[in-house]
Amino acid sequence: MKMGGGRRRPNIMITGTPGTGKTTTAQLVAETTGLRHVNVGDVVREKRLYSERDEEYDALILDEDRVVDELEDALAEGGCVVDHHGCNFFPEDAFDAVVVLRTDNTILYERLETRGYAAHKVQENVQCEIMMVLVEEAMSSFPHERVLVLDSNTMDDLERNVGQIVSFVEQFQRSS
Ligand code: ADP
User: Fold this and answer.
1) pLDDT (tens digit, 0 to 9) for every residue of the chain, 176 residues total?
2) Which atom of ligand 1 is the closest one to the Cα of 27?
3) Ligand 1 lined by 17 (C-beta under 6 Å)
4) Distance CA 42, CA 45 (A)
5) Reading across the β-sheet that carries 80-83, which strands appear in turn?
6) Closest residue to atom 25 of ligand 1, CA basis
7) Cα–Cα distance for residue pair 75/147, rounded to 1 Å
8) CB 110 near ligand 1, within 6 Å
9) Ligand 1 centroid to 155 CA: how many Å?
10) Which of the residues 1, 8, 92, 98 could staple to 13 if both were Cys, CB 3.0 to 4.6 A apart?
11) Contact assessment for residue 129 and residue 138, using Cβ atoms and an 8 Å cutoff
C-alpha cells in the first residue's frame, strides 16, 4: 500500500466509544472539505465483511483483514475520513491524523439510551469510555504526534472539533 508522503489529500481516522459523535463529526468534515466519509460499520454491512454475529451484544464481529483490503485503494489514494470505534487493525501509515472523541459519562449514557441500546450495552460502552479504551488503542497504534484527543460533549465542542480537523486538512493540502 502506497502511504505516507505520497498522498495529496490526507486520511483522517475519527474514533471513540459509540455515541461520542464520530459519524456526526465525520459527516461535517466531509461536507466541508469534500473528503470522502467512510463509515466502517456501513461498509462492513454492505459488503458483509463480518465473520460472525455477537448475539449478546447484537453486534457484528468484523473481519479486520477484509476491511483493510476493501479500503486499501481508497486509503492509498487519500482523502478519506474514516469513522469507526476501533483503529488498531489499520496500517500505521494509513492515517495522517487520528482523532479520538471523548464524552462525559452522564452525557454518553443519555445518548446511548436515546439510541435504544439495551442496558448492558449502555453499561459496557460507558465503561469503555471510562477506561479510555479508544485513547489507549490510538496511542498504542499510531505515533502520538498524530493522535488528537478532543472533547465531544456539546454542540460548541462539535463545531470546534470540525473546525480543527478542517484546518488540518487544508494545511495538509497546501503543503503537499
Ligand atoms: P457515533 O458515530 O460516535 O456513534 P453519533 O455521531 O451517531 O456518534 O452521535 C451520537 C448522538 O450524539 C447523535 O444524536 C448526535 O447528534 C449527538 N452528538 C454527537 N456529537 C455531539 C456533540 N459534540 N454535542 C452534542 N451532541 C452530539
Assistant:
1) 334 557 999 999 999 999 999 999 999 999 999 999 999 999 999 999 988 776 665 677 899 999 999 999 999 999 999 999 999 999 999 999 999 999 999 999 999 999 999 999 999 999 999 999 999 999 999 999 999 999 999 999 999 999 999 999 999 999 98
2) 6
3) no
4) 5
5) 36-39, 80-83, 12-15, 97-102, 147-151
6) 154
7) 18
8) no
9) 9
10) 98
11) no
How many other C-beta atoms lie within 10 A of the C-beta of residue 125? 23
Q: How far is the CA of 38 from the centre of ligand 1 (A)?
A: 16
The single-letter code of the amino acid at 99 is V
Nearest CA to ligand 1 atom 8: 21
Which atom belonging to ligand 1 lies closest to the Cα atom of 152?
23
For the chain, give the number of residues.
176
Q: Where are the alpha helices (DSSP H) in the chain?
A: 22-33, 40-47, 64-77, 105-114, 119-130, 133-141, 155-175
Q: Would the pTM count as exceeding 0.90?
A: yes
- CB of residue 27 inside a 6 A radius of ligand 1: no
Residue 136: alpha-carbon gap to chain centroid: 14
Q: Considering only CA atoms, which residue is closest to atom 14 of ligand 1?
A: 111
E strand or H helix at 57: none
Q: Which three cell numbers stand for residue 169?
A: 486538512
